[in-house]
Amino acid sequence: MARRSARRERRDRSAGLEQMPFRQLKNPYSPIEVLSQDQIEAIHHASLRILKEIGMRVMDPDSRRRLKDVGCEVNESNERVRFDPALVTELVTDLPPEYTSIARNRDKDMVVGGNNIVFSTVVGPSFVSDLDRGRRPGTYDELCDFIKVAHSLNIIHQDGGGGFEPMDLPPESRHMDMMYAQITLSDKGWQPCWLNSRSRATDVLEMTCIALGLSRDELSEIPTISAGVNTNSPLLLDSELAEGLVVMAEAGQPVDITPFTMAGAMSPVPLAGTLAQQNAEVLAGFVLVQAVRRGCPCVYGHFSTNVDMKTGSPAFGTPEYTKTTLASAQMARFYGVPFRSSNTTASPVADAQSAYESEMSIWGTVMGHTNLVLHAAGWLEGGLTASFEKLILDAEMLQLIAGVLEPIEVNESTLAFGAVEEVGPGGHFFAAADTLARYETAFYAPLVSDWRNFETWEEDGAKTATDRANNIWKQLLADYEKPPIDAAIEEELQAYMAKRKEELFRS
Predict the structure, then answer these.
(1) Which of 9, 28, 31, 100 could pair with 369 as two cysteines, CB 3.0-4.6 Å apart?
(2) Helix 319-335 crosses helix 352-367 at what angle (to 10 degrees)?
(3) Structure pTM?
(4) Mean pLDDT within 162-189
(5) In this predicted model, what pLDDT tens digit does every residue of 217-229 receive, in sequence order?
(6) What's the average model confidence in pLDDT over 298-309?
């Protein structure tokens, strides 16, 4: 009975939906490995050759100075930095294998690394969509609604950065409004909003300190929020992203280095060449992080995919994307650091294509042992659009994946000899004592799926999965309750934002 009681706790009927409870997920299975050890070594050495003979263009003068100080060869005339292989090996050895992402509600802290999996929402699109109003530029009010719905989904562990850009707010300051919404509307952890400048990264850190009640010195000793930094593939790190990287590394916060290597456009067509270039860019980022603060956690980021050679558009959820996810995860384990990848699709709408491409992506991330899955829910159109319906459909897929991660129990109780004996040949188990005893917790109830025959489905309104997702996000939004937050924290955040906006717009 103790086991049955524990299983019964899996059901959370908040907002009228049966959900799994909020909890840290662990992957109990061995990762799928698509590379041999010799191939891993070959990619590693090819990356070191790229860094030594070709190098990276680093546009930020301060970053070039820091790299020169640790022993890199810097050509100021063309902003080219070349990396000695021995130096790279030295600086990326013994990086922290994991860190804890702190939430406003400390019961929702998440460990990033090892066999742990963290699902975060989509971030970055300029557009939002739903069945009622279609695709449109995102607004701040809609962003708040997106965060509220995501907060209500237990399978989502973190807010990924607000969901989408509030295009009705000034670009100079909207990152603070997005941070404020993340902090106040959810008590989960969060990924910081845009870090593409020193001032924006500083704002993110200051608001994090206010939210968590920490000083900057205290925060620097607690790896809390990972800073996502995209290199400009091929082999370029622009000034603003480098500034954000430096600020976050100075503060001791984990830095997620993620190249955007699109085979055939931003990297070579052969996947081995794409992996070597991606790896070189990741290692260059790691070296810069360590040049700023030795021992600062680093996250190996993956976003390698192919392009449609007819149009040049990025393709997502493809076999190439899945294979590079699995291979990149192996490279991250080779360096002993946490790994980040994403749930992606190129489909512009929440349709069958978006579902199977996302399923391909999710399967690759989980079976490769990804630790931080960004864009895990809500992504459409190659990252241009965040969808309310897709947020719900993805949550269902993630919840099903979480069910797969629960190992099959084999013991005297689960072998259920007594149930087989009771039913005997030719009977059925619906009314068996064992079935009735396990009725409430037997299987996972879906959020969206409708497991009925056609006749009853048609009689009940014949709603598709996307239609039901539309109803569910509206229900979650209607039932949303703001998690408690100290009024003094909200006031301090508001005062900080007001002061910073005055400074920004006065100048």
Answers:
(1) 31
(2) 20
(3) 0.94
(4) 95
(5) 999 999 888 888 9
(6) 93
Closest-CA residue to 56 (of 288, 348, 310)? 288
Is residue 286 a contact partner of residue 256, using CB atoms and an 8 Å limit?
no
φ, ψ of residue 68 in degrees (nearest 5): -65, -40
Q: What would the two tokens of residue 470 be?
A: 């539309």
All residues at 6 or more sequence positions from 313 whose CB lies less than 8 Å from its CB, including other chains: 307, 346, 382
Residue 444 has pLDDT above 80, yes or no: no
Would the pLDDT of 356 be above 90?
Answer: yes
- Of 204, 187, 186, 275, give the one whose Cα is nearest residue 245: 204
Compute the distance between CA of residue 335 and CA of residue 42 in angstroms, rounded to an integer. Answer: 14
What does the alpha-carbon distance between residue 150 and residue 478 come to, in Å, rounded to a whole number?
13
For residue 335, give the amino acid letter. Answer: Y
Structure tokens at 425: 């040949």
Residue 13 has pLDDT above 80, yes or no: no
- Is it the case that residue 5 has pLDDT exceeding 50? no
What is the number of other CB atoms lying within 10 angstroms of the CB of residue 504? 14
Q: How many CB atoms lie within 10 A of CB 381?
A: 20
Cα–Cα distances in Å, from 331 out to 91, 93, 270?
16, 13, 17
* Cα(83)–Cα(90) distance, integer angstroms: 12
Residue 468 has pLDDT above 90, yes or no: yes
Q: What is the mean pLDDT of residues 354-362?
A: 96
Q: Find how far residue 483's CA is from the centre of its chain.
A: 22
Specify the DSSP element, H or E, that contains 112: strand 110-113
- The C-alpha torsion from 310 through 315 and 321 to 322, rounded to 10°, is -110
Q: Residue 26: beta bridge partners?
A: 116
CA atoms of 2 and 320, how far apart (whole Å):
45
Per the CB < 8 A criterion, the answer to whether 195 and 417 are in contact is no
81 forms bridges with which residues in the sheet? 56, 74
User: Residue 307: what residue type?
Assistant: V
6 CB contacts (<8 Å, ≥6 apart)?
A: none
Give CA angle at 104 (111, 250), nearest 5°.
65
Residue 502, number of CB atoms within 10 A of its CB: 10
Closest CA to 342 of 309, 304, 286, 311: 304
Asked if 305 and 278 touch (Cβ cutoff 8 Å), the reply is no
Structure tokens at 32: 């799928």
Nearest to 340 by CA among 225, 252, 256: 256
**What span, in angstroms and rounded, lies between the C-alpha atoms of 440 and 264?**
51
- Here the tokens at position 68 are 């020169």
